[in-house]
Amino acid sequence: MKLLTELGDWLYSILVALALALFINIFLFQPSLVVGQSMEPTLHDGQRIFLSKLSHTLGKLPNYGDIVTIDSRVLRERDWQDDMTDPLMNWVNLLTGKQPSHTVWVKRVIGKPGDTLEFKQGHIYRNGALLDEPYIKEPMRNVADKQITVPDGQLFVLGDNRNNSSDSRVIGPIPRNHVLGTMVFGL
């Protein structure tokens, strides 16, 4: 009987610890892996980063220049089930060494709702002011001059390696609830 009680206590402790770890990972803090070269020279392929999930959990917009992870499936609505299963799959991928889903991208916030972004001669202007971007790998090449106004409830994100990045230039502005986390630090 004492053995069963002790096993029950151990099982209870393990379940509580697992539930707490899942809560933290889903709502507060999450590790992730950078896949590809789109954020070079800031982040590199295979680099581990740690994300704050508070902005996603509380529905806050990230700041200009923040590095965020996004769900690139912008034509698909996200719901609470995605918020529960995506972090679990992220842990499975990290523990097994499997590559994360290609739908989660790491990018930098360039535009917020209502901003007018202009692409002119390889440079970006936000609301008429040229962006100072010391973090980019090299100036953009082969980009047609155009102007975009970021819709309400959405963000415009770009990779730091502008000539080798799929980002809002390809899939359009990102719905606010598709921003999954904001990078806190990388290893």
From TrEMBL:
Gene3D superfamilies: Umud Fragment, subunit A (2.10.109.10). One of its GO terms (molecular function) is serine-type endopeptidase activity. It comes from Propionispora vibrioides. The chain crosses the membrane at residues 12-29. It catalyses: Cleavage of hydrophobic, N-terminal signal or leader sequences from secreted and periplasmic proteins. Its main location: membrane. It is found in: Cell membrane; Membrane. The active site is at 38, 107. Keywords: Hydrolase, Membrane, Protease, Transmembrane, Transmembrane helix. It holds the Pfam family Peptidase_S26. GO terms for cellular component: plasma membrane. Belongs to the peptidase S26 family. Residues 9-185 form the Peptidase S26 domain. One of its GO terms (biological process) is signal peptide processing. Its EC number is 3.4.21.89. SUPFAM superfamilies: LexA/Signal peptidase (SSF51306). This is Signal peptidase I. It is a single-pass type II membrane protein. NCBIfam families: sigpep_I_bact.
